[in-house]
Amino acid sequence: MSPVTALGHAKINLALGVGPLRADGFHELDTIFQSLDIHDRVTVTPVDGPPGVRRLTVAGLGADAVPTDRTNLAWRAAELVLGDLTGVPAVDIHIEKGIPTAGGMAGGSADAAAALRATAEVLRVVTGTGSSEAQLLEHARALGSDVPFTLLGGTRRGTGRGELLEEIPATRTRHWALAFNRRGLSTPEVFRTLDAMRVGAGCVASGDTSELLAALLADAGPEEIAPLLSNDLGAPALRLSPGLAEILRVGESAGALAGIVSGSGPTCGFLCADAVTAREVGGAVAGACCDIRMTATATGPAPGAQLVPR
After folding, report:
1. pLDDT score of 292 more than 90
2. Which GO molecular function, any one, fits this protein according to its record (predicted)?
């Protein structure tokens, strides 16, 4: 059987409200995700050997920072799908990175979602039976908070720890310039810093997504959406990486409608009125900010994890 490839798309949080720490160690979240057309390619190949994942390799953007053992979410995703049936093959996994690592854009979760799709298709062809959509979503929830969204894509509100999803039928194309930092940020450290900042301030109030949700449901334009973008993790990311403030300033001065830290950072996203402005903003940030390793433009919403036609 020939290899099966699936695309896993990056995400950006249009709004991210972080509630208090829960008993299970997670924070209660209220977020609005949007998938972007920047993606990784995950290829799953059946090979000879005992059932399971034989090998995982990585190439592309930031490949040297991606684990190639079972700590990689894509490896664990394939194992979960292979565990759905008996008589399954061994597989090799190859990831071609286009999403920055440790950038707050759910690259590892996107890889896991794509691995779920590709491995399920391998089983469908080899055994005649594949995992159901419900099984894949259950596996996604077991793998991590962002994996269910990267599996489904589009624009969705996420609650709980982000895994409880409600589709938002927002189809208008949004144009983004993205600035990828040379140094990553640890997501747990960003959350710990937020908790410490809130203890110091004596409050744990989280951001409110309701206005943005209403605007998206009304199919509002980018000028109306821009002032409603928010991220509770932006302040702790700026405390840990103060240079992000200059990146945001340059992008907004160059014509972006709004700049935000993406998720836990350090990638910065700039909502723009159109594709031309997005290119101009990306160029301005790349030319002015020494901490930037590269910039890119993107549009959203994009699909969830999807098979590449063979």
Report:
1. no
2. ATP binding
Strand duo 90-97 + 52-60: pairing? parallel
DSSP class of 153: B
Q: Is 30 a catalytic residue?
A: no
User: What pLDDT is attached to residue 205?
Assistant: 64
Q: Coil, strand, or helix at residue 245? A: helix
11 assigned to active site: yes
Q: Average model confidence (pLDDT) for the chain?
A: 93
Paired tokens of 133: 């959509």
Q: Which CATH class is domain 4-167?
A: alpha beta
Burial class (CB in 10 A: 0-12, 13-18, 19+), 128: exposed
Statement: the pTM of the whole predicted model exceeds 0.85? yes
DSSP string, 46-101: EESSSSEEEEEEEEETTGGGS--STTSHHHHHHHHHHTTSSSPPEEEEEEEE-SPT
Report residue 82: phi and psi, to 5°: -60, -30
Superfamily, domain 174-300:
GHMP kinase, C-terminal domain (3.30.70.890)
How confident is residue 25, by pLDDT bands cut at 50, 70 and 90? confident
Catalytic residue among 11, 30, 40, 97: 11
- Of the residues 30, 40, 84, 146, only one is catalytic, namely 146
Show binding-site residues for ATP: 100-110
